[in-house]
Design a protein that fits this description.
The protein is mainly alpha-helical. It is built from 8 helices and no strands. α4 runs antiparallel to α5 and α7 runs antiparallel to α8.
Length: 165
């Protein structure tokens, strides 16, 4: 007889490990991931329901900006990335505006890493929106904040260089 609880078993069977989120948020996110394959509106609705349940869930912000970037809804992707940045900044005790962040104050784990990763996503979204100057400003900040390239900002920088030559 297994000593695992039902919640533990469900977590093991999950399609994606969303980390430290409540069981309720996890269940909604899992439904959204499955829905995304066939019904992007349902996926968006699920992710927004998870966000309403817990607006501090960084995984939910990630899901939102990823699905909208993939589907080409760059306005929604930008909105979600900016929301995720605000929440990550709050959780990591960073200034609300990424332009005011100091690299030595950002942990490369937890919400700090999420903040940097989302900054990278923001640069990509700006580039996809044909906002090269705005993307460049984000990439310059990311290079300053993450000089070891822990979140892979150099990949988006290379895309930017290819797109603007």
């Amino acid at each position: 007889m297994s000593s695992e609880s039902g919640a533990q078993r469900r977590r093991i069977e999950d399609a994606i490990d969303f980390g430290d989120v409540s069981d309720d948020v996890n269940e909604i996110l899992q439904r959204g991931v499955v829905a995304y394959r066939t019904d992007r509106a349902a996926a968006d609705a699920a992710f927004r329901a998870a966000l309403a349940l817990d607006p501090r869930s960084l995984a939910t912000w990630f899901c939102l900006y990823k699905i909208h970037t993939y589907s080409g809804d760059l306005d929604a992707a930008l909105e979600a990335a900016e929301g995720g940045l605000r929440e990550a900044a709050r959780a990591a005790n960073l200034a609300p505006d990424w332009r005011d962040w100091i690299g030595d104050e950002i942990s490369l784990a937890g919400p700090g890493r999420f903040a940097l990763y989302t900054l990278k996503a923001l640069a990509f979204i700006r580039l996809r929106r044909d906002e090269a100057a705005e993307a460049r400003a984000v990439l310059d900040a990311l290079a300053r904040l993450d000089p070891t390239d822990a979140v892979g900002g150099s990949v988006v920088d290379a895309i930017w260089r290819g797109a603007t030559t």
